[in-house]
Amino acid sequence: MMRSTSKVFLLGALALAWPCGAQAQAGAGAGMGAGAGGSATEPVRAPLSTNGVPPVMVPPPLPGSALGDVQPWTQDDAKALLSLLEGIGSEGLDPQDYKLPELSAAIAAGEGPELDRAASRSFAWLIEDLRDGRTPMEARRQWFVVDPDPDVMPTARVMSEALAKHDIAGVVDKLAPVNPDYAALRQALADTPKTDKKRIAMIRANMDRWRWLARDLGKQYLMTNVPEYQLRLTVNDKIISTYKTIVGKPGRTATPQLAEIVEGVIFNPTWTVPQSIVKGEGLGARLLANPASARAQGYAVTRGANGYVNVVQQPGPNNSLGQMKLDMPNEHAIFLHDTPSRGLFNQDNRALSHGCIRTERALELAITMAILGKGASKDEAVSISTSGKYTRVPLQKTFPVYITYFTMGRDITGKLRSFNDIYGRDAPVLASFEAPRVANRARKTDEEVIEIVDDLRT
Q1: How many CA atoms are closer than 13 Å to the CA of 21, on its beta-carbon side?
Q2: Is 262 found in the same domain as 122?
Q3: Do 404 and 293 share a structural domain?
Q4: Residues 307 and 326 in one domain
């Protein structure tokens, strides 16, 4: 079983630290090809590092091949790869996805172009699946996160490092997600009887969902698991606060999965009522006809010269956004906010909103974020929150926020359990694991971005 670590890639050779394109380009005139006076099949010796560490022998790309597509493999390295692939089921992946018969035959035939091609292909596919997830993008419904890991750990560099160090398993070991929730699923997979195929399938699917995210989520972040109806504030892999949530109703208003940045905290927010309500439902006309009712509900209503009616609900106890919202700009118009209808947090099924995420004890969360983000001291945040005035507190230290969808994982108490698949997003993921592996997968979804027009009155 491989162990996740928080180590970054330590590239012994200076050449390995270059971007792939720069390394390949430099090869023609910097000792990586025959044009530099050396053989195209001769290993290149990296310069001696400044701390006196002996140089690493870096295998060059094969003639006519792109670096990372095919690299030279020894039989011993290829055998180590084969052994690793045969046991890759411990990571929830299928060994048969990686062309083991072809790799075995190439090893038996000896070193040369066939072994280089077979081993490079199997290794690259393994890297892609462990780093990015095996599930193709079309099976990741409403998944709008773009995983940064292929840019941070490009396949060519990972392969070069593994071959230079002759440590296939050790280098691959550094690709798995470092989050302890992933480790808990991996352990559950090892402990589950082989006969419990349904549970195994669910564990594998949710392990893969972790790979869709960045390998390391950061030291401090917010994460909400939509089917669990919970939000976590996590620092150094420890949950320091949890909050019940209300999420989008199934269908067109289902909450999408995002990775965004909280840039500020808005205390005593206003709510600009969408035109679908102002005009479409006639709210603007009714409020204009009854100014007293508008004032009682906290609405400021204006009509422009062209007849356009604008309705803004002012800060106050009845404001539909409650006492706070987290400013996290995104094209979906999704954000986390308070609600005056706090009794809804007592329901078991809390898929009730039009897409945005309503948060229990939201004022506590807002003050905590303002402090941790170095936007305000505790006293300042409390004073701002009780002023009744709209105030945006920018964060000097921004926070990642992950809106995820796990149907199996550790709950807020640390217990591994299942959550209801409220949006029906498991089926395509499970089906993709039963289908042949998809190569050349897209990194970004082409699904429609649905801008949330949230009727916060419901």
Answers
A1: 1
A2: no
A3: no
A4: no
Q: Which token pair is 319?
A: 């404001």
- Among 378, 56, 389, 405, smallest CA distance to 248 is for 405
Both 231 and 286 in one domain: the answer is: no
Joined together, the tokens standing for residue 148 give: 């940064």
Contact 234, 180 (CB under 8 A): no
Q: What is the per-residue pLDDT for 457?
A: 53
Whole-number Å distance between alpha carbons of 119 and 104: 9
Final residue belonging to a domain, choices 287, 313, 339:
313
Alpha-carbon span 126 to 176, nearest angstrom: 11
Structural contact between residues 307 and 319, judged by C-beta atoms closer than 8 angstroms: no
Q: Tens of pLDDT along 280-304?
A: 889 999 999 999 999 988 999 999 8
β pairing state of 57-58 and 391-404: unpaired
Assigned domain for 244 exists: yes
**Radius of gyration in angstroms for the set of CA atoms belonging to the chain, rounded to a whole number:** 27
Provide the greatest CA pair distance for the chain: 88
Rounded distance, CA 295 to CA 174, Å?
60
For the chain, first and last CA: distance in Å?
49
Identify residue 116 by its one-letter amino acid code. Answer: D
- pTM of this prediction? 0.82
Question: pLDDT tens digit string along 403-444?
Answer: 999 999 999 999 999 999 999 999 999 999 999 999 999 999
